[in-house]
Amino acid sequence: MLNKSLVGVFFITFIYLLAIFLKQPLEYVFNLQFLPLSLLSLILGMFFFNIFSLSSNIVEGREFIKKNILQLAIILLGIKISLAQLWRVSIESIFVIIITIFLIFLTYVLIKKIWPTQKGISKLLAIGTSICGVTAIMASSTILKSKDQEVAVAILIVVLWGSIAVLTYPFFCGVIFFDRLS
């Protein structure tokens, strides 16, 4: 299988290298403070895979990366958390994290009842918002057998909410904790 999809793996590598090459000029031209490389790679990938008719080998390479390499990368990312770091977080923080993940999955159940036709997107959103965003969505999409369109919409929403949070959290922290800061 790898031999057939090797062309696709090289194509995905090309897209990633193109994103690295374009990141800094795009940040400068559009006056962006920080443009996530993962988002730029995703946009370029969507552009190439939706605009051009690509060979089945390239599509197989993309699927190989999604199913094998991305999941391995997430496992390796998780291994970076040591027991000492986990201990430093403390029991109270772990309790808050568990409650937050539970509430987000509860929100998923409510969203599923409100929009029953969007089950795939709501699952991906629950996973993406409760665990680690785009990476969790991409890794779980192969397990859930999500459609590419559902994955793209879920990633767009998570990145949009994350961008809004980055811009608004400092304001709200200043308003809420103003008494403590002065």
Main pleated-sheet profile: none
SS content category: mainly alpha
Enumerate the spans where pLDDT stays under 50 for 5 or more consecutive residues: none
Distance N to C terminus = 62 Å
Q: What's the structural blueprint in terms of helices and strands?
A:
Elements: H1 2-29, H2 37-51, H3 56-79, H4 83-114, H5 119-130, H6 134-144, H7 148-176, H8 178-181
Helix pairs in contact: 1-2, 1-3, 3-6, 4-5, 5-6, 5-7, 6-7
Summarize the structure.
This protein has 182 residues and is mainly α.
Care to describe what's here?
- With 182 residues, the protein is mainly α.
- The chain has eight helices and no strands.
- It has two domains: 1-80, no CATH class; 81-182, no CATH class.
- Helix content is 85%, strand content 0%.
- Helix 1 (2-29) crosses helix 3 (56-79) and helix 3 packs across helix 6 (134-144).
Protein traits:
182 residues, 2 domains
